[in-house]
Amino acid sequence: xxxxxxxxxxxxxxxxxxxxxxxxxxxxxxxxxxxxxxxxxxxxxxxxxxxxxxxxxxxxxxxxxxxxxxxxxxxxxxxxxxxxxxxxxxxxxxxxxxxxxxxxxxxxxxxxxxxxxxxxxxxxxxxxxxxxxxxxxxxxxxxxxxxxxxxxxxxxxxxxxxxxxxxxxxxxxxxxxxxxxxxxxxxxxxxxxxxxxxxxxxxxxxxxxxxxxxxxxxxxxxxxxxxxxxxxxxxx
Amino acid sequence: xxxxxxxxxxxxxxxxxxxxxxxxxxxxxxxxxxxxxxxxxxxxxxxxxxxxxxxxxxxxxxxxxxxxxxxxxxxxxxxxxxxxxxxxxxxxxxxxxxxxxxxxxxxxxxxxxxxxxxxxxxxxxxxxxxxxxxxxxxxxxxxxxxxxxxxxxxxxxxxxxxxxxxxxxxxxxxxxxxxxxxxxxxxxxxxxxxxxxxxxxxxxxxxxxxxxxxxxxxxxxxxxxxxxxxxxxxxx
Amino acid sequence: xxxxxxxxxxxxxxxxxxxxxxxxxxxxxxxxxxxxxxxxxxxxxxxxxxxxxxxxxxxxxxxxxxxxxxxxxxxxxxxxxxxxxxxxxxxxxxxxxxxxxxxxxxxxxxxxxxxxxxxxxxxxxxxxxxxxxxxxxxxxxxxxxxxxxxxxxxxxxxxxxxxxxxxxxxxxxxxxxxxxxxxxxxxxxxxxxxxxxxxxxxxxxxxxxxxxxxxxxxxxxxxxxxxxxxxxxxxx
Amino acid sequence: xxxxxxxxxxxxxxxxxxxxxxxxxxxxxxxxxxxxxxxxxxxxxxxxxxxxxxxxxxxxxxxxxxxxxxxxxxxxxxxxxxxxxxxxxxxxxxxxxxxxxxxxxxxxxxxxxxxxxxxxxxxxxxxxxxxxxxxxxxxxxxxxxxxxxxxxxxxxxxxxxxxxxxxxxxxxxxxxxxxxxxxxxxxxxxxxxxxxxxxxxxxxxxxxxxxxxxxxxxxxxxxxxxxxxxxxxxxx
Amino acid sequence: xxxxxxxxxxxxxxxxxxxxxxxxxxxxxxxxxxxxxxxxxxxxxxxxxxxxxxxxxxxxxxxxxxxxxxxxxxxxxxxxxxxxxxxxxxxxxxxxxxxxxxxxxxxxxxxxxxxxxxxxxxxxxxxxxxxxxxxxxxxxxxxxxxxxxxxxxxxxxxxxxxxxxxxxxxxxxxxxxxxxxxxxxxxxxxxxxxxxxxxxxxxxxxxxxxxxxxxxxxxxxxxxxxxxxxxxxxxx
Amino acid sequence: xxxxxxxxxxxxxxxxxxxxxxxxxxxxxxxxxxxxxxxxxxxxxxxxxxxxxxxxxxxxxxxxxxxxxxxxxxxxxxxxxxxxxxxxxxxxxxxxxxxxxxxxxxxxxxxxxxxxxxxxxxxxxxxxxxxxxxxxxxxxxxxxxxxxxxxxxxxxxxxxxxxxxxxxxxxxxxxxxxxxxxxxxxxxxxxxxxxxxxxxxxxxxxxxxxxxxxxxxxxxxxxxxxxxxxxxxxxx
Lengths: 236, 236, 236, 236, 236, 236
Known about the structure:
The structure is a homohexamer.
Chain A: E1 9-14, H1 19-23, H2 25-34, E2 37-44, H3 58-73, E3 76-82, H4 91-104, E4 108-111, H5 119-134, E5 152-156, E6 168-171, H6 176-184, H7 187-190, H8 201-216, E7 221-226
Parallel strand pairs in A: 1-2, 1-4, 2-3, 4-5
Antiparallel strand pairs in A: 5-7, 6-7
Helix pairs in contact in A: 3-6, 4-5
């Protein structure tokens, strides 16, 4: 039994330029292969993810890295342009994300879970939740018209799987290569692997998709939980 | 064994003009019948709950609808006047609610739960929690003097009962008629029943009070959880 | 996005003859329509579900009712023949269920959840969990050979939805008729609707599938949670 | 707002002769004062609660201690006569408890919670849960006829409050004296206060009722959670 | 088996001037005795903790009380200078705390838990969590250089132990005297003991450390939970 | 900050001959190195863990494998001799384990958690919990005298980390070699790596200790939760 993403419009809402790679790139690749339209919305610039060997123009560098990864995937890319470490669930931030939703018209949103380790991830989680409701409320005016109805919303796994109880798994065995290539685009972060304030991302990703796979009986998997509330829950 | 609300001063703190009807109107009616004083505080204007057939002057219309419903109940009505979708747990918002608490002097507050589906509901939940503590702190100055002690606080059910684990139930069998009439005042929202971004409220309310009733062995019920923290918990 | 049950072999493991109707008949009907093979295993005889108007030969009567319902569904029927109120998770009981698994070879098992209200339901839950592991262990000898690998396992909703937090929903809109007809076969239980120790089953079922539907944006639904443990979790 | 137990028939189901004193004697005393009928069912003999200074005939001694305490309270006393450390949720054990339920006809049962520290407490919890359903099932034959309908069921606090999240509190301020006198009847256990395998019960009880009281704004309280499942949940 | 704090740098991050005394002073005293460096960061002024007998210059008074208590402990003291009841998890508030972290360089942070009863406690919890990550991110510029790596983070017990499930306990038997003396410094709060909006702190503290001690088999203890997320979790 | 196991007597209570290797061998090795006495109690024979290439005399083979692993560790070995798949929490099973406790006199017991995937693991969990209380009750007679007081009890991680939320981690970086060698003794199970009803144990162990290590900032770790109930909780 496999979920089929054909006809869906899947949008990942992440805090930083390399988060989609870690938590949902395999699922996005699979959805793409099924015929879904894909978008990634990166809310923050990644401007504070500075390696010990300083990278000049980090914001621009990371934007290019994200663009390269999105190109590999064939995904439309949205940038929230918020500064790292400043993301909050405020009215202006919501409005910006609502407008991006209305432009892409997702039927399924993948977002950070509230248990995650980073304040920007948790703010992104709250923003995605808020926007997933307001995007369809015609009382909320933005440049684009309101969507017909709210998208479904799934919470993504955490860094290192800490504290995340999966509700279900998506088999990404056939998309490990693409996910890995996408991560490889983020060179500015991969060089942080030996810094004491960070971790080797490639190993972390490999361990995580393999562990989730082993838990679910496949080579590699990504884990999610459905957000079962009014108008965001779906019957499959 | 029935709870008796005689002598209580019960205040519902809700986000939008029709929320009290859905989640606690039966309990308010029962408390009223027991001899309690009742208030409803509606924090937002309801200005974004626009039906597909556009309603002009929606804020004014909804204010009248809320007033009509409160009249049926015999409840004092407070308006927070916040715009829909902008409610946050901030200092100014707290101060406004603290002052309303100090005017009405509730002994029991009914508020949205943090699991609820709508950002305004969650902000209302946080605000009610904050005000339930600060209202009795004489260091927090507002126009009215501090209350003697904090009120009890109960969390209300969610829309559609999604994700809410009841701690106890209130029998509202004798108050179904009034609750139903109160909802009927909210015509601007009832006409949204067929909109894809909303639901038929009358059916939703009927199903919910009947389901909660069936769970608790009566015709109709409303579900709550007590907020068991410092000074808000009570021994019955 | 719909789950497709084609090629699956779905087995519901329930305690009493009418439990499959209440909790998963719509899903079974949908899986059948997708081309899955269906079985229902009724662990207890239903011999204690005596209406106030006494039914003679209750065990035989209920067996016929279950058979009639299974015929409507096109499901293979297994009987555990345990007496009501005596079901426990013991070695003999496991062996019997393991053998039934090995005969039918399910790829997906639907079973009562541990939060359910009835001791037999909880014992059935433990038995299904145990059998879902042991059925594939060749060290566990029964008449039939061990299965190749363990089936997936989903927990079903509770009576009245009490205490059950859904992980996902299955749309049964097109199968409400069959589910309803199947329940109608259980006449010995429907006449208990006015007994103080029981409830009107038809209303209960209608409310439950409609509420789960309303929660998930469809006419009618059934709610489940995947059992995410070793060899029973799946990647979709 | 106070709960009123008038007209109720309250039965505490505990594992050992001094458990009712620790967890619910204040509530029983209050219910008695309200006009309720009270029973205590002690499932085990207390035969293994041997102090370091050995007590001869411990079973008989503890039976007398329990009887003395019940006399103070004015409660009917039932003995399960199971040996300490052997209590399980089995068919024979259920039948015995069902018959006691049918004799006393409780409308409210107070029982150990599943989080409690002692295997006998957990078995007592399961037995009370099972009997609270089966007592009203006329298919379950015992000497006495089936009850009309199942009683409500509340879970009691744990020893030391470890791991127990209260759902609500009962004010026992006026019944501290009686609760204390009742505990004083259990001399064979009070002398275990300095044994390394046990604790000073009087201090433990005093701390617990005072802490629960401080949490709930009264001098002394006992904490409970309602078991919100089919036919055992109530609307107050 | 005892934890040894030698070589650690322990920083308590609390909302109000007397919070460290209630929740972690015993642990700080023990860490100090083990040879750890200790700091207390008080985020708010305590300016709203006004007794019914009004204290003039409350902010200054409480600052002196906190300083006296810190002196007894031998702890470095940091003041956030926020007004009571206004603390939020904002960018400016984070920056201030990050700088304090970078000055003291904690290896272990003790902070309020999110379940706590007071909005300032919850804001302090979020701030400590955010700062525990950002303090080591060299992209986040403050006056002092970034720390090498994030500190460990433990959540402290709540007032009255309401809703807090301990993960482990720290034995403070040898430090009860100092903890008690430290609380005694907070005279402006001790005189609130009879106010209806507050509680007698000395009794509350005594009950709490004794109860936690009784739960953990020692005279007196404090309870904590480790925050098991990326870079804040530790292997002991 | 490291836990020091010096002077402890640590006993792992596991269901099958290779379970200690997977879940706690690193911690046992570290405790041994600290000077603790170590025991492993294997409750079942491992007689049903039959590879697809059948192993004759599987019980004897696995006993030898367990003995070889224990020898590497320097641990005393106890065998429960129960047949696989039949383990239950019964009176006779408890008595046998109580006697083993009384022989070894553990101060710390490591046991399977109740969330684990295998019925024998869950029964072992219940048995260890029961024996950890009864071992110190002098009313419970076995050949050896009662222990002075109950041991501490920690729950171990699950297979594949499914559903286990760690409370804390133990650094086993220096003991990876021994843990790996110990697993290598279990040749009868390692050859099941390609069977569809099982998994490659060596990879599974490597992934798990590395993932737990990455979560906790070390090369390799094992995860636990303390059982915080009466007399089994400890203050560190």
